[in-house]
Amino acid sequence: xxxxxxxxxxxxxxxxxxxxxxxxxxxxxxxxxxxxxxxxxxxxxxxxxxxxxxxxxxxxxxxxxxxxxxxxxxxxxxxxxxxxxxxxxxxxxxxxxxxxxxxxxxxxxxxxxxxxxxxxxxxxxxxxxxxxxxxxxxxxxxxxxxxxxxxxxxxxxxxxxxxxxxxxxxxxxxxxxxxxxxxxxxxxxxxxxxxxxx
Length: 198
Known about the structure:
With about 200 residues, the protein is α/β, with parallel strands linked by helices. The chain is built from 8 helices and 6 strands.
């Protein structure tokens, strides 16, 4: 499989957002396409509100991503998107939520929270390929706030940077998620694809 295009995806969010579920679903979708995939967590299961970072690498041997190596940055929380920018290679793709889930330090007032404009400026200094979406709002519209991560995965699949589209993710959801949460997540997938066209 040496002819597989190498794609390094860096995912970041905060505990309780479903970052690791999204990582698993994306890795299973890659596998379902017959592509070699490696995934890993950089920061273990963070407590609710703590930072969670994970990687999905297509056609790569190591699950690690160094600074300037990520082809894609998927940020489920905007401050974490900004914090993870050093990992993005120049001209890489960013898909980020614009809805904050501030870490404890910000909630307690010991650290300032950047504005969405600050974050967009920081992203635009690294790449002009960026999509921003209200993932929690989309999740709520679909029926569960956590399904916002599926909406973001769907947007990523629809962005044209992966060797498959949202249909592959849809098949993975149907094959791997319990039936009782499938409808919500399939609705989130549909809304995520639409959000990309806005």
